[in-house]
Amino acid sequence: MTAGAAAVVIVAAVVVAGMHGSSRPTVVAAPETSTQQTVTVTSTVPPPTDPSSGPSPSDSDSSDLSTASSAAGSSDSDSDSASDALSDAEALAQLQSDRSTDLAEISLDGDWDAQVASQYVGVVDSSIQPGPMSATDILNYSNSFADNPSYGSLVRVVAQNDFGQISSDPRQVWITLVDLQATTESAVQSWCEANFPQRGTALEEKCVPRQMLPPYQ
Are 183 and 192 in contact (CB under 8 A)? Predict the structure, then answer.
């Protein structure tokens, strides 16, 4: 075998090895002889796999996370709704707390305030709701006056026997007042007529003047 033929055989062997070992282009130089030869062989990189030929793992994971997130969101929403609802015991405790705070704000000096609510647990007032009122219902109804932008800052919650003539009724009657501190009963009556649409007996059931005196028998 001549030196040129041997060089060609060596080059072919190296090229075959390069094609199996790497996808990069391979360049092989023959050893120097009296006649120098250089052979260059370029391998072809196989085309990428068509992404449409099968499902994408990332898409599948994203879908699963979206489903899990929706389920978790629904659970959180239900939990938030449950936490927003007060039990009757909690509502009663809140009424007691409001009463303690508001008694310090009221002056029992003979001025006149507007009584806008008077309820006890179990009372039925069809003008408010069809069934008996719970402590939660009473608290919510009282808070509806406290949320009024015109006079909400003047709303106070007390008990029936915290002022005026003491009642022998053993039930705890919750009174919601608007602390107008008016000097006359007629001034409060005018305020009631200006803030409530009812008239006559219907107005008396919604808003009535009350004189703020220390408790007496």
Answer: no
Answer yes or no: are the C-beta atoms of 120 and 171 closer than 8 Å: yes
Non-local (6+) Cβ contacts of 51 within 8 A are none
Q: How far apart are CA 93 and CA 71, in angstroms?
A: 35
Summarize pLDDT for 14-46 with one digit per residue, the tens.
333 333 343 333 333 444 444 444 333 333 334
- Predicted TM-score of the model (pTM): 0.61
Instruction: Give every CB contact of residue 120 below 8 A, 6+ residues apart in sequence.
Output: 138, 171, 172, 173, 174
Measured CA to CA in angstroms, residue 112 lies from 54, 119, 162, 180 at distances of: 81, 20, 15, 7
179: how many CB neighbours lie within 10 A of its CB? 18
> How would DSSP label each residue in 139-173?
HHHHHHHHT-TTTGGGEEEEEGGGSSBPP---S--
pLDDT in tens, 55-106: 443 443 333 333 333 333 333 334 333 335 789 999 999 999 999 999 999 9
Phi and psi torsions of 28, nearest 5°: -125, 135
Rounded to whole angstroms, the Cα distance separating 23 from 43 reads 6
